[in-house]
User: What shape does this take?
Amino acid sequence: MMSWKDHARPDASQYTSFSELIEATVQTLSSDPTYTPSASDYKEAELSLLRQVQQDCFSNEVTDLTSGKPVPNSSRLITLSPELDRTMQLIRVGERLRRSAGLDDESLHPIVLDPHHSITKLIIKDYDGKLCHPGPERVFAEIRRKYWLIRGRAAIRQHQRQCLDCRKWRGTPEIPKMADLPPARLRLHKPAFYSTGVDCFGPYMVEIGSRNEKRWGIVFRCMTTRAVHIDLLSSIDTDSFLVALRRFVARRGKPFELLSDQGTNFKGGERELRETFKALKPELQSQLASQQIQFVFNPPSAPHFAGCWEREVRSLKQGLHATLGSQSVTEEVPRTVLIEIEGILNSKPLGYT
Assistant: This one.
C-alpha cells in the first residue's frame, strides 16, 4: 500500500462528485503511472479526506482528543461526547449503545463532519444522487448510517434547494397571470344575452311511444350577466340548432355574437345562416346588416376557452343526475327539469356566497 503522508491532496472545490475526488486523491499519491490502486488504497484515500475535514474544522478538538484531554465546554462537539478512533485517527460520536450486538461500529459511532466543508458538500451530493433525489429526511437517514453531520438536515435542505434535479422533480408549475377579460365579458350597458356562449350536452334517453330515442340539451350563456337559457334538441344537427336558435331569439332577443366551440352543428349553422344572408335581396341586406348574428369560434381542442359556459354544463348535469338518475322518462320530463334547473341557475347570487 502506498504512503499517504507528505502528499498534497487535490482541491475538493474543483470536483463535482465525491467519487471523482477520491479517484483524484488516489492518482496524486502515486508517482508511478503504471501502478494499479487496490481497494485498500481507495479506502485510505477516503479516510484521508475525512481526516482533512476534521483537521480543517475541528483542529482544537483533534489536538485535545489526541493528547487524551476532553474537549472544552465551548466546543460544538460537547453534546456529542466525541471520541477519537485511534485506528483511523477520526473523531466519532460517543454513544451509550456500546453493548448492542446488532449494530456495527459505524452506525453506533458515526464520523463527525462539518456541513460547510467542501468535502462534506460533495458527500451530501453523492448520497442525494445515489438515492435518486428523494426528500431531505431520506438522505439524512442514509447519511446518518456512517456520518454525523452537525445540523445535517439544514445542510441537506440547502443542497436540495440548489440541486437542479431536486428542483425539477419537486417543482410545481407556476400559475400564469390571467389575461384581461375579453370584450364579450364587458358588455355592461347592453341587454342580456348580447354576447352569448352556446354549447350542447348529452345525449339522454327518452321514451317515445314504445321506443327509446336520444335527446340533447343546449345551453345559451350570457357572457356578461351569467344568465342561462336551456332548451332541448331532438337531434344534434344543423337544423335542430337553427330551430333552437330561433326559439332563443324569440324569447331572449337577438344576440350580437354567439361564441361556441368547433362543434360541427354550430359550424353548419353558421354556414347556412351565412349562405342565406348572402342570398337575400340587396334591399333586405342593408336593413338586416346591423342585426346579423356574428359567430365566434374557439380554437380547436381548446375547451379552456369555453370555461364560462362549460361550468354551467357541469351544474346542469349534476341537476339532471340528481333528479332523473338513470331512469327512462318521457320527453316532457327532461324538458321540465331543464327549465327548473334554468330557474335555479338564474336565481343564484352574483357575489360571494
Q: What stands out?
A: Residues 183-346 form a domain with the Nucleotidyltransferase; domain 5 fold (CATH 3.30.420.10).
